[in-house]
């Protein structure tokens, strides 16, 4: 790790020393799990949460329940179990803040944004400086397109030791008409999550070359840090998926193969599989689907989103679009927190059901906050999908307007970008 990431390394090293000196230091294990979760290192987060639970046998009931909630969030991925453990904590300790942050984090992942905000607000009533509660509340506001309410929450976190820079940058992008503010991209950052957000927003702006360099540099850097090893797989999996989404399938096999050199969490395994499926590399997609179900049997995201979404794309790519659409019916309840509407729109569009595709893409565009929390690039690509769907249905006026809107966001694309060229040629009637 470079010196630019020194504070993160120092925090991890300090907590590692604490757990080495006292393996039963449950609070230190819980802090490590939270850091690794924030920095997109799922294997390390799962290991720390599991260690917290293993070392909590002689601890207070409150810490035992906290460890159980952390395991549910960070190891098994069972969001229902995380909420249940948090509820048990609140039954015994009604004023608990940690319980509310675990519950709010689970609700946020479930797409229950108003409830997540209420839960985080209740935590902040009791501890106004709790950064995790501020993060949950801010993201719940972003998801509901209440950007003006999210800003002071992020600023308040900065006043208490954690500026949440990745979420601050995303919010700035949203409030700046999906354009990166001048000077917002820095060559090195203390937080992995911030660097990943920067790369994602470059991709969403069409600057795929700069994004590719950022993804690769970040993966190389963090891949040398033992505790953050799995984060390298996470960022490479996202790079592979973003390349597949812009139909740059020639680079996907190599990037996906590189990602598989690291331990992959459920999200990364899904993204490798989805990238492969979208590009017709169905053997790797089949492997990813099998590993999702075998390696993450309790994961709510796998059961409710990742497995059916990946299965649907595989079915579509094998020539059975209707089976794919039927599979996606089972994930409709996760529309606001998943890839489902976008994938449904793609399948509708490519199978000649353009009016249904219009509905799917409009849903994503009408909920910009929740759409970009899933993946920033999904918003401009939904705009592109809408333009194509209108064109396929014969509505060339609305198609031209949608293409023009896509170009406004995708403004940093190279002159020879296939997507930008298509949009430029179609945006003028």
UniProtKB/TrEMBL annotation:
From which domain of life does this come? Answer: Bacteria
Could you tell me which Pfam families the record lists for this protein?
TPR_16, TPR_19
- SUPFAM superfamilies given in the database record: TPR-like
Q: Which InterPro entries match?
A: CellSynth/LPSAsmb/PSIAsmb, TPR-like_helical_dom_sf, TPR_rpt
- What Gene3D superfamilies has UniProt attached to this entry? Tetratricopeptide repeat domain
The answer to whether keyword Repeat applies is yes
Keywords of the record: Repeat, TPR repeat
Q: Which sections of the protein are TPR repeats?
A: 97-130
According to UniProt, the name of this protein is Tetratricopeptide repeat protein
Identify the species of origin: Granulicella cerasi
């Amino acid at each position: 790790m470079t010196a630019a990431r020194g504070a993160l390394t120092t925090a991890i090293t300090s907590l590692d020393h604490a757990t080495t000196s006292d393996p039963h230091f449950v609070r230190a294990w819980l802090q490590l799990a939270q850091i690794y979760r924030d920095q997109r290192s799922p294997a390390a987060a799962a290991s720390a949460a599991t260690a917290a639970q293993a070392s909590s046998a002689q601890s207070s009931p409150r810490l035992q329940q906290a460890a159980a909630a952390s395991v549910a969030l960070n190891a098994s991925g069972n969001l229902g179990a995380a909420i249940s453990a948090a509820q048990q904590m609140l039954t015994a300790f009604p004023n608990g803040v940690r319980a509310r942050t675990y519950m709010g984090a689970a609700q946020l992942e479930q797409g229950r944004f108003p409830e997540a905000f209420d839960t985080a607000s209740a935590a902040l009533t009791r501890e106004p400086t709790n950064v995790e509660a501020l993060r949950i509340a801010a993201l719940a506001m972003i998801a509901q397109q209440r950007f003006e309410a999210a800003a002071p929450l992020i600023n308040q976190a900065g006043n208490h030791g954690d500026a949440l820079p990745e979420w601050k940058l995303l919010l700035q992008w949203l409030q700046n008409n999906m354009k990166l503010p001048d000077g917002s991209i820095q060559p090195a950052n203390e937080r992995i999550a911030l660097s990943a957000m920067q790369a994602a927003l470059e991709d969403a702006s069409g600057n795929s070359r700069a994004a590719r360099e950022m993804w690769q540099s970040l993966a190389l850097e963090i891949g040398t840090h033992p505790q953050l090893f799995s984060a390298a797989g996470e960022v490479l999996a996202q790079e592979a998926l973003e390349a597949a989404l812009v139909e740059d399938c020639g680079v996907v096999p190599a990037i996906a193969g590189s990602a598989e050199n690291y331990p992959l969490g459920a999200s990364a395994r899904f993204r490798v599989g989805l990238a492969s499926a979208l590009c017709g590399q169905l053997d790797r997609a089949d492997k990813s689907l099998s590993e999702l179900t075998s390696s993450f049997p309790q994961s709510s995201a796998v059961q409710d989103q990742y497995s059916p979404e990946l299965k649907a794309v595989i079915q579509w790519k094998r020539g059975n679009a209707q089976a794919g659409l039927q599979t996606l019916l089972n994930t409709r309840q996760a529309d606001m927190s998943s890839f489902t509407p976008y994938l449904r729109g793609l399948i509708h569009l490519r199978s000649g059901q353009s009016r249904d595709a219009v509905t799917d893409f409009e849903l994503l565009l009408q909920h910009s906050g929740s759409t970009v929390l899933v993946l920033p690039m999904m918003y401009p690509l939904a705009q592109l999908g809408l333009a194509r769907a209108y064109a396929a249905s014969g509505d060339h006026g609305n198609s031209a307007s949608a293409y023009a809107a896509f170009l406004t966001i995708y403004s940093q694309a190279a002159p020879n970008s296939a997507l930008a060229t298509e949009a430029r040629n179609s945006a003028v009637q």
